[in-house]
Design a protein that fits this description.
- The complex is a heterodimer of chains A (723) and B (206).
- In chain A, 42% of the residues lie in helices and 13% in strands.
- Chain A contains 29 helices and 21 strands.
- A seven-stranded mixed sheet of chain A has the order 11-10-12-13-15-14-19, with helices on both faces.
- Chain B has ten helices and no strands.
- Chain B starts with a helix and ends with a helix.
- The chains are: A alpha/beta (723), B mainly alpha (206).
- At the A-B interface, helix 9, helix 13, strand 7 and helix 15 of A face helix 9 and helix 10 of B.
């Protein structure tokens, strides 16, 4: 042991600044053998992790390539609880703070999972914003909100970061009820400029004097709402700052399965041209000289000359924003704290600016090499090991519904060359990257533009193609008028595949697909169906492909399949439209489920078997058109009919009871009860917790049965029994 | 560009290079010389080049050796074939270093040996880093034998781009300031201008 102590010096000198590992070989003598082995073990680990840096010692944590599985040392960040504590720091200290913040974000996300890449890209921007502006008086809005992890750390929530995206923990997006520093709730994109303009105008009306800053990404900039907001901002001319965070990542991921692809849309190439534009400096100097000469009393003329010169030499791109009425500044290096602080300070101190757009160029995943190199830039990750970047993905027996959908669609498209797929910047999330790989010319990514996607699909359907629009259930809310007016009213055969239906877990109420049954089933021409397992999903994709005279839609949840046998060749067989099926024959009580709620019904009936009750369980398959025969037979031969769905009021259950009432079936002896999502938003958490909060677990269903039958004691028993 | 490499000097420190006859391509020790680009890069290089030629008048042989070694690729400098592992590169470097180090070189050929040593060290730095080595191999295959390492060149490009950006937004900021003077002049009838005038009018009354 004593010998090994002397081999330390060369290593120790390289690993300076590493806090507890600092030890001189002399002092280590006195500590005894146990500590030697402790130190040597720790330093050996460091040796593995230290990258070779030929240019000497690098003081910053992430540059050294050391990623700690223990909490990284963050001396400066430990002194910052709120942005006000940053006000006395120097620029050098701000840079150190940024590095520590980066290490902290990596450490926190590695323990909880979440959105990593986007947060890493805006570390310096967050630090600069909170340094220059005085939140919460100054309003700082973050579009989408998934990049706000550093913002949350700096605004008093660092101690809760380990609860990120968990039940009763921090939300993964900004949330007004969580903190006064979160000005506006986000989750869907492209809303920050609109909200920011609202806050700016509200401030003007109230006579206040704070600043309003809205941070929006280049992906979110592809949505129409951003232009609607900029157009209005230019017209109203209210003082506000829009920060365009440009990292060339427009879709999720901005890559195929085989590698990166250029971002979709013409805007991205315009922004790139802005970055590479080499200004004709001499011409600029000339223009300045001319205006100086004209200057003096002739303000307006000088301004006109300047504007003309500016338009002439600054090229394309900035004129887009200028024409909308926003003053363009940039491009700016988004990872340089000096530059950011200087610019923000200048703009803040300028008395009247009108709307200003600062074009900041960042890199998603910056500072964590594994994220920088990954195709998806580690946008959303599960828990991972910081030192190796490997995610701890639990291996499930079955794949996700998303993957099954993609495979089903590929199988349909093999047979029918008119099948095309459309998505809105969600190639990974909808599984259509798989479709893209197989059929590169038949998959369309329109950017974050759901409204356009739906009408685009309608146009395709006019030409005889078979478009499948894969849009998340909650994002479909954006495109509702297009669904009604452009698709349903004209009875165009567009197929809607709504992923993430029902409760979605960690993403919370912003991404929860509770309303799609309600708003789709009330449309006169729409066929509405939902699979109860993955095999049914394959069949329903085939059914949708076969329905060619009217629009149709189907919904499936987040999560994995239950493990039933898949149809051969992944090719489903079209179902008979408007026909459900009975899974278990029983008596007295019938459970009529819609979608994956059928699985909960089956579990509930298994629970009740042990109590001597044999229920009937039926899978409705279609909400529109309903299987009238099935419902009539269930109502006539049972005492109780319970409809179960993972959707809001006004959906499947409402359609069933409407039919029951009109058919005279409610005038008899049957009792009908609905089980739907409650009339409130269910916060983020684990799927099991959410389901329990919603009251849709098998235990809840069984308890409802008992309650109706009058066996309240058994109902309580089953609810308190922890299965 | 070979020319611009000579331009990487801080203008004030030219005198430094006159006392020694080693060439001013001092980017071998990058952490000692900050990479500041003077705005008039071309002037600096011309001046120094002229002075170098004067000073080097008497040491023609030195410059000849220098020129020669400039043409050699990193692999030739280390005396190794192109497909070698890191271990062999390290060994070759150590050998070369021991041979060409100023302290052990024969006294009459100090300058050229030092020159060589500096180049050998640069070669080792580039080739021992797998990323840099890959870039260098690619350049080599395209026929470019640069005394620069590829990464530094790209860094310099990045730096140039960034400083251009800086100039651009600085002028944009000053323009913004100028515009804000006239923003709420009487002619501006936008909603916010009216609100601002009202607000300022009120505060003035107070």
């Amino acid at each position: 042991m004593a010998l090994s102590a002397f081999s330390f010096p060369t290593y120790v000198s390289k690993a300076t600044n590493s806090g507890p590992h600092k030890s001189s070989p002399v002092t280590s003598h006195f500590f005894g053998a146990a500590l030697f082995s402790h130190f040597s073990h720790k330093l050996d680990n460091h040796q593995i992790q230290l990258k070779k840096r030929p240019n000497g010692v690098c003081a910053s944590l992430s540059e050294r390539g050391e990623y700690h599985s223990q909490r990284p040392p963050t001396p400066l960040l430990d002194t910052i609880n709120y942005p006000i504590h940053m006000k006395n720091l120097s620029i050098r200290e701000l840079k150190q703070l940024a590095d520590e913040l980066r290490a902290d974000v990596i450490f926190n996300v590695s323990k909880t999972g979440g959105h990593l890449g986007s947060s890493l890209g805006v570390i310096e921007l967050t630090v600069a914003l909170h340094y220059v502006f005085n939140a919460p008086k100054d309003r700082i809005l973050w579009d989408v909100g998934h990049q706000t992890y550093p913002h949350k750390i700096l605004t008093g929530r660092r101690d809760k970061m380990h609860t990120m995206r968990q039940t009763d923990g921090l939300s993964g997006f900004t949330k007004r009820s969580e903190s006064e520093y979160d000005c506006f709730g986000t989750g869907h994109s492209s809303t920050s400029i609109s909200a920011g303009l609202g806050m700016a105008v509200g401030r003007d009306l109230k006579g206040r004097k704070n600043n309003v800053v809205a941070v929006i990404g280049d992906g979110a900039m592809t949505a129409g709402q951003a232009y609607e907001a900029m157009n209005n901002a230019g017209y109203l001319d209210s003082d506000m700052i829009v920060i365009l965070n440009d990292n060339k990542q427009v879709s999720l991921p901005t890559a195929t399965l085989d590698g990166p692809i250029p971002p979709v849309g013409a805007l991205s190439s315009a922004l790139s041209r802005l970055q590479s534009n080499r200004p004709l400096r001499e011409l600029r100097e000339v223009a300045k000289g001319v205006t100086k000469q004209i200057g003096g009393p002739m303000h307006e003329l000088a301004a006109k000359v300047d504007e003309y010169a500016r338009g002439m030499i600054s090229g394309s791109g900035s004129t887009l924003f200028e024409e909308l009425g926003l003053y363009y500044i940039g491009p700016v290096d988004g990872h340089n704290v000096d530059d950011l602080v200087a610019i923000l300070d200048e703009v803040k101190n300028t008395k009247t600016t009108g709307p200003v757009l600062i074009h900041v160029v960042t890199e998603k995943g910056r500072g964590y090499p594994y994220a920088e190199k990954a195709a998806d830039k580690y946008h959303g990750v599960a828990k991972f090991d910081p030192a190796t970047g490997k995610q701890f993905k639990s291996s499930a027996r079955t794949q996700s519904y998303t993957t099954y959908f993609a495979e089903a669609l590929i199988a349909e498209a093999e047979v029918d060359k008119d099948v095309v797929a459309i998505h809105a910047a969600m190639g990974g999330g909808t599984g259509l990257n798989l479709f893209l790989r197989r059929f590169p010319t038949r998959c369309f990514d329109v950017g974050i533009a759901e409204q356009h996607a739906v009408t685009f699909a309608a146009g395709l359907a006019c030409e005889g193609l078979k478009p499948f629009c894969a849009i998340y259930s909650s994002f479909m809310q954006r495109a509702y008028d297009q669904v009604v007016h452009d698709v349903d009213l004209q009875k165009l055969p567009v197929r809607f595949a709504m992923d993430r239906a029902g409760l979605v877990g960690a993403d919370g109420p912003t991404h929860c697909g509770s309303f799609d049954v309600t708003f789709m089933a009330c449309l006169p021409n729409m066929v509405v169906m939902a699979p109860s397992d993955e095999a049914e999903l394959f069949h329903m994709v085939a059914t949708a492909a076969a329905i060619d005279d009217r629009p149709s839609c189907f919904r499936y949840p987040r999560g994995n399949g239950i493990g039933v046998e898949l149809p051969p060749g992944n090719k489903g067989i079209p179902l008979e439209v408007g026909k459900g099926r009975i899974l278990i024959e029983g008596e007295r009580v019938a459970l009529l489920g819609y979608g994956t709620a059928v699985q909960s019904c089956l579990a509930a009936s298994a629970l009740l078997e042990s109590h001597g009750l044999r229920l009937t369980v039926a899978d409705a398959r279609f909400c529109k058109p309903l299987d009238h025969a099935l419902i009539r037979s269930l109502a006539k031969s049972h005492e109780v009919l319970i409809t179960v769905e993972e959707g809001s009021i006004g959906g499947f259950g409402s359609h069933v009871v409407q039919f029951l009432a009109l058919d005279g079936l409610l005038d008899g002896t049957v009792k009908w009860r609905p089980l739907v999502l409650p009339d409130r938003y269910i916060d983020h958490g684990s799927p099991a917790d959410q389901l329990a909060q919603a009251g849709l677990t098998p235990s809840h269903i069984a308890a409802t049965v008992f309650n109706i039958l009058g066996q309240t004691r058994e109902a309580l028993e089953i609810m308190s029994f922890k299965s | 560009m070979r020319c611009s490499s000579y331009g990487l000097i801080i203008p004030g420190s030219e005198s430094r290079f006159l006392t020694t006859t080693t060439t001013p391509t001092t980017n071998k020790k990058p952490d000692r010389f900050p990479r500041i680009y003077p705005t008039s890069v071309s002037f600096g290089s011309l001046k120094v080049k002229a002075k170098l030629n004067d000073a080097a008048g008497g040491t023609a042989t030195a410059t000849a050796v220098v020129d020669e070694s400039k043409e050699l690729s990193f692999y030739d400098l280390l005396g190794i074939p192109e497909s070698v592992s890191l271990v062999e590169i390290k060994q070759a470097y150590k050998q070369m270093a021991r041979k060409y180090h100023p302290d052990v070189s024969p006294p009459d050929r100090v300058e050229e040996y030092t020159q060589r040593f500096i180049r050998v060290q640069e070669a080792y730095e580039t080739l021992s880093d797998p990323g840099l080595r890959a870039l260098y191999d690619r350049d080599l295959s395209m026929g470019l034998h640069l005394a620069f390492s590829a990464r530094r060149r790209q860094q310099n490009d990045d730096f140039q781009v960034r400083s251009e950006w800086r100039n651009r937004w600085q002028s944009q900021l000053s323009e913004l300031k100028r515009r804000s003077m006239n923003k709420d002049a009487g002619g501006n009838i936008s909603w916010a201008a009216r609100m601002r005038r009202k607000r300022d009018g009120l505060s003035q009354e107070l």
